[in-house]
TrEMBL record:
<dbReference type="InterPro" id="IPR023091">
    <property type="entry name" value="MetalPrtase_cat_dom_sf_prd"/>
</dbReference>
<comment type="similarity">
    <text>Belongs to the endoribonuclease YbeY family.</text>
</comment>
<dbReference type="Pfam" id="PF02130">
    <property type="entry name" value="YbeY"/>
</dbReference>
<protein>
    <recommendedName>
        <fullName>Endoribonuclease YbeY</fullName>
        <ecNumber>3.1.-.-</ecNumber>
    </recommendedName>
</protein>
<feature type="binding site">
    <location>
        <position position="122"/>
    </location>
    <ligand>
        <name>Zn(2+)</name>
    </ligand>
</feature>
<keyword id="KW-0698">rRNA processing</keyword>
<keyword id="KW-0255">Endonuclease</keyword>
<dbReference type="GO" id="GO:0005737">
    <property type="term" value="C:cytoplasm"/>
</dbReference>
<dbReference type="GO" id="GO:0004222">
    <property type="term" value="F:metalloendopeptidase activity"/>
</dbReference>
<keyword id="KW-0963">Cytoplasm</keyword>
<feature type="binding site">
    <location>
        <position position="118"/>
    </location>
    <ligand>
        <name>Zn(2+)</name>
    </ligand>
</feature>
<dbReference type="GO" id="GO:0008270">
    <property type="term" value="F:zinc ion binding"/>
</dbReference>
<feature type="binding site">
    <location>
        <position position="128"/>
    </location>
    <ligand>
        <name>Zn(2+)</name>
    </ligand>
</feature>
<dbReference type="GO" id="GO:0004521">
    <property type="term" value="F:RNA endonuclease activity"/>
</dbReference>
<dbReference type="InterPro" id="IPR002036">
    <property type="entry name" value="YbeY"/>
</dbReference>
<keyword id="KW-0540">Nuclease</keyword>
<keyword id="KW-0862">Zinc</keyword>
């Protein structure tokens, strides 16, 4: 786990992030790599907006962006000097996450966990473009978050 902090906001610790990522991979078990490395970068809204505009063509900051290491879902790559697959990079904007948590009446920590789990699933090829995909992804998120002691984020 590589945790980068490029913002002034409070961010989950490396240990907390590692637990969230590990639990997500554990819950996927046979459907996922079982383990993996990931970079999580916490950014200010300006950087989030720039990346969102460049890569998703949406000119606004967002809660989480996922950049899978592999071109195709299911492909795994390993970085030199590592024996674990590199899943990719997550970029999280804590000020957006905290604003959303307040608007939705959720705890800051629970919503940060949800964004991390959601991002990891995107790195592994999960998406929510169709109702079927969304239902599958959301059911995994609910299960992972429950195993971490957080409530259903969609309730």
């Amino acid at each position: 786990m590589d945790r980068q902090r490029a913002c002034q906001a409070r961010c989950p610790s490396r240990e907390t992030l590692t637990r969230w990522v590990a639990q997500t991979l554990d819950e996927l078990d046979a459907q996922g790599p079982g383990e993996g490395e990931v970079t999580v970068r916490y950014v200010e809204p300006g950087e989030s907006r720039e990346l969102n505009a460049q890569f998703r063509h949406k000119d606004r900051p967002t809660n989480v962006l996922s950049f899978p290491a592999a071109d195709e879902p299911g492909e795994l790559m390993t970085l030199p000097g590592s024996d674990r697959p590199y899943l990719g990079d997550l970029v999280i904007c804590p000020s957006i996450v905290e604003r959303e948590a307040a608007e939705q009446g959720k705890s800051r920590r629970a919503h940060h966990a949800h964004m991390a789990v959601h991002g990891i699933l995107h790195l592994l090829g999960y998406d929510h473009l169709t109702d079927e995909e969304a239902e599958r992804m959301e059911s995994i998120e609910i299960r992972v978050l429950a195993s971490l002691g957080y409530p259903d984020p969609y309730a």
